[in-house]
Amino acid sequence: MSSLPCNAVNVDTTPVLVTEPRNVIRAFLVLGFFALVSLSTFAVDHRFIYFSAYLWFGFIYGMSLQYGRFCMASAIRDLFAVGVPRMAVGIMIAVVLFSLISAFVTVAGKSTFHPSPIGLYSVIGGLIFGIGMIYTGGCASGSLYKTGEGSMAALLVVLSLSFTQVFVVDAGGWMNHLVPTAWTQSALAKGLPAAITPTDGWYDQFLAGYVWDLTAHTVGELLGFTNIIAAAFIGNSLINSIIPAVLILAGIYVRWYRKGYLRGNEAQYRGISTEFAGYWSMITASKRTAIAGLVLGVAAGLHMWVMQGLQHRLGIANAGELLAGMGYTSGLSIQDTLFDPGYFYITTQEAQAAAWIVQKLGFNVMDSIFFGLDNGVPNPLLNPVLWMSIALIGGAAVMALLNNEFKFKIPTPEIATWAIFGGILMGIGARVGLGCNIGAFFATVTNGDPSGWLFGLGMTVGGFIGVKFFNWWIERKMSKEMAAFDL
Amino acid sequence: MAVKFEKVGDGTYVLDVQGYVCPHPQLYTKKGLEKMKQGEMLELVFDNPSSGESIVAMCKAEGNEIVSQEKETGKTTMHWRIRKS
Q1: How many CB pairs under 8 A join A and B?
Q2: What Cα–Cα distance (Å) separates residue A470 from each residue in A350, A418, B5?
Q3: Which of A16, A165, A222, A250 is deepest in the core (most CB within 10 A)?
């Protein structure tokens, strides 16, 4: 292809976007669908407002993620692979803002957050997840928003990581022998209900025999703050989120941004003031990403506030109680609970949907702690947190349509293979690490939970390993393509 | 569709990575530009919007010049011309 197509439209670096009329109509159709779901279910039973709250926050997340092309895989990969800090900067902005809003929510007594146990499992889970997300090209939330852009490769990633999680939490047989005897004994000592069969299934023994024996604290608690304002703002937000984020940004500036910035400002170098100007320039370099980070951070904090408020108003502590009260008891855990984090979360609700299908095929996954004791396997239509994921895809679709970026794309066999393989690694990593880039990193570090940084460390190292492999892979393919030329 | 790298003129190459998602377009672009000589032109064809901003930032950081950015009407396919610095 030597010349541009005759119907090409010239655009400069700051094009004025004119949304195509058909895309505006499609966007309104998607928006209308979700509005109809909200209104019609509310008309049937006002308690569906709890579902709709998840839905509309999911919609906002989807729009923000697509607008800023927000993706944890991109943040790590672009740094190591092409030296571009844009996305890593955006994520740190979101971390700072989410942590401040979370502190307000905590002080107001409206937080739904519970810290995860602190242990090496977070690093290992993050490492496996990090390698996987580099292969797929998107993290868990990134794959959802890209599905909304019409990428069937991203949908394959979501399916792959969902079904893999079901396998991971239910696998027994020879895998039972992979866990230390101490874990088995410790799991047995917990006196779990017989229906859970805690000694059959390596993941049950991992959870009950290892993870449950670890301690979970926020930084505010660890530092012994008795004043909730000090614990939330100084311990959780400042020490666990803002200071690490500022230091990470400084590291990124020195390693990846400073040289290029100073090259363009050599004549005006004035020491530390120029360095600060360069630091600020890096933060504001991509307004799109910065704006998305701001909206995500604020929305994620408000989400907790709204869900806790609704729980109080509806007189419930968990969506399981809500569903039982509405007459839907099928698929609840044996504690009558349902997965209901009350904040931005990905992966568990998709695993529940996959488990529901697996159960329909005749397999029993309710004998696991993950599904049977804790999260349940509800009908996907009655899973409030899954409403958030579906709406996230819808919100991303609306934003992609308004930006003329929606395209239904079938993956090539090569891309499909990467999607499935990477999705499997992401599914394993998400279960071992008790979450993904959102639940085990973004939502945790911003609520003062140091385990999030452990997952983030593993994810970064995994990302680095993934990039090294991908670099080799693409170098090999490109060398073949370029072999015929004198380059 | 597999990646295509072709010479279409004196010092001008086309890299077609349509159908590829992140991180393929930006990595192929980086590898291609690394091997090209100063002043040569790369015509990049891709349809993954997420890769666009990364490629812009990458070119800026490495000093390569994006001469033009064009998008096919009604499609997501983009044609960019990048001069190796």
Answers
A1: 151
A2: 27, 11, 18
A3: A165
